[in-house]
Amino acid sequence: MMINLKMNGDMSAPALMVRVTVTLLTVGVFVLLVKLGFWQLSRGEEKLGFEEDLSARDSMAPLSLEQIESKVGKEVLTGYPLKAKVGTTSSPSFIGTT
């Protein structure tokens, strides 16, 4: 904060401009930081929702490969338990391809 030590109390135009600029900059940064804080709170709630979804999926019975393939493109597949037999084959198979 600038203190004006002039006897008559009048501020020159450049000093007033600096004071106004610093004040506006301070208010702008404060508003930005408050908005970022609220964004972090909403992002935290969103992540808690994801965590609950993953916990619910973790307690489910394992899905077959066919069940997983039927969900491709319709929802996020992260966290589903998968039960599959693995072996060798002459033709490669990829999830989500036809």
Automatic annotation (TrEMBL):
Any one GO CC term of the record: plasma membrane
Compartment list: Cell membrane
Pfam entry (one): SURF1
Domain of life: Bacteria
Topology class, membrane: Multi-pass membrane protein
UniProt xrefs under InterPro entries: Surf1/Shy1 (IPR002994)
Broad class of where this protein is predominantly found: membrane
Keyword Transport: no
Keyword Nucleotidyltransferase: no
Key words of the record: Cell membrane, Membrane
Membrane-spanning ranges: none
The protein's name in its UniProt record: SURF1-like protein
